[in-house]
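Hi C.,

You asked whether I'd gotten around to modeling the 338-residue construct. I have! Everything is below, sequence then structure, no commentary in between.
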Amino acid sequence: MPSFDLIGVGSPIMDLLARVTDDFLARNVAGEKGGMVLVDATEMQRILGLLEGEPAYATGGSSANATYNATRLGLRTTFLGKLGNDELARVYRHRFQTIGVDTSRFKTGSVPNARCLALVTPDAQRTLRTDLGAAMTLAPQEITAADFRDCRHAHIEGYLVFNRALAEAVLSAARAAGCTTSIDLSSFEIVHDARAWIFAQLHKGIDVVFANEDEIRALFEDQTSDFPTLARRLASYGVLAAVKVGRDGAWIAQGNDLHRIEPVAVANVIDTNGAGDSWAAGFLFGYLRGWPLPACGAVASLLGAETVMHLGPIIPQTHWELLLPRALGLGPRANAAR
């Protein structure tokens, strides 16, 4: 039996969280609202210098967020990514150790840790600017099948695809180690840039693909079809397709099966940052426990909804006392006992 249910693979980024106005974005930040753009340390410092106050801090990174929350749900987890040589990296590792993530597969670079500035507007939309720091120095030759030893499933963030050789090395090593795999497409910018590569990987074999509305439309260059149709189209590549449509819930397609996942209503949305990662965590928890797909989707929706009620991608520890039994209660055994 594998030692770990899940290995997350991606950039261990410390999130910097700041509330801004739409006017601030328009005047000071180039690019589309709601997207993610890579920046260097100089540009990061320029934007930080324009903020009215100090940003809040939280561990981040798409796959890291998913791994963090999957651990809290009860999966045995580890993580593969490259930390920096600074205090942010030390804090990052410590926070993962504290909740029970195995940190022995972190690698350490010779430059500062990665940072992602999440600029949150009053509509709760987040616009991301990321300085990858040490995470960007993770090289394909550092990745081997040994990194995935004793792991059942590897979850990979789409942001790795900015470095095609690295993403290829990760998927190849995970497959060689016998892992099943999932990928979160992460950003419509990534999909626009890497459509051919993504389709090549689907043909090689990926088990689960997560996409939101913008990402699935970018993947198929289709702005008119409805989301059930797009989910089925993605599933036709032999994957389990999980298409998240925000406050309208999600669609899950596998083979000939299609499931509508109802959303969990939220009265006061604070910040959408990390909601998709939490959704993936909930889904993978159920999926790796062998739950029916509707139950996997229900847990996913619950975690995603909880995340948007807080600033940043991490659900506060104080909320897990009530959240965990609600999540576990959505499983097949709990439903059968009712």
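If it helps when you're writing up: The first helix runs from residue 22 to 28.

Thanks,
B.
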